[in-house]
Design goal:
- The protein is mostly helical and about 120 residues long.
- Helix content is about 55%, strand content about 10%.
- It is elongated.
- It has one domain: Arc Repressor Mutant, subunit A (Orthogonal Bundle), CATH 1.10.10.10.
- It has a three-stranded antiparallel β-sheet with strand order 1-3-2.
């Protein structure tokens, strides 16, 4: 008795099992933007800072942020600088104090990109 085989010996392009996926949910630029934002958010202190700023809704003094976190002012300032350099927050100097606020339009873009990324998982 002859063994049953399913081997495909046809090597034409039409017979290839793998076809390129062209419906990519994110462009290269969007993927880079999202990866950069997620890298910034990948620290508990930075996540808490953003949550505090977003909850407040306006500009918050760095001294008030420090009082809400289990770290000292230099550490708070370091993480705020990273968030500011990454474009997620803005700062405003008022005399000797510095106040911070979230850049809602930037975070809305990050949220949109995350939603766009996960859209295909819901399908």
């Amino acid at each position: 008795m002859k063994p049953y085989t399913v081997a495909n010996t046809d090597t034409t392009d039409e017979s290839r099992c793998c076809t390129p996926i062209t419906d990519v949910p994110l462009t290269d630029a969007e993927a880079t933007q999202l990866a950069d934002a997620l890298a910034l958010l990948a620290h508990p202190i930075r996540l808490r800072l953003l949550a505090l700023l977003a909850r407040h809704g306006g500009h918050v003094c760095v001294c008030d942020l420090e009082a809400s976190l289990p770290v000292k002012q230099p550490t708070v300032s370091h993480h705020l600088r990273l968030l500011r350099d990454g474009g997620l927050i803005e700062r405003e100097r008022r005399g000797q104090w510095v106040y911070y606020a979230v850049r809602r339009e930037v975070l809305a873009t990050v949220k949109r990109l995350i939603d766009q990324f996960f859209t295909h998982l819901d399908g």
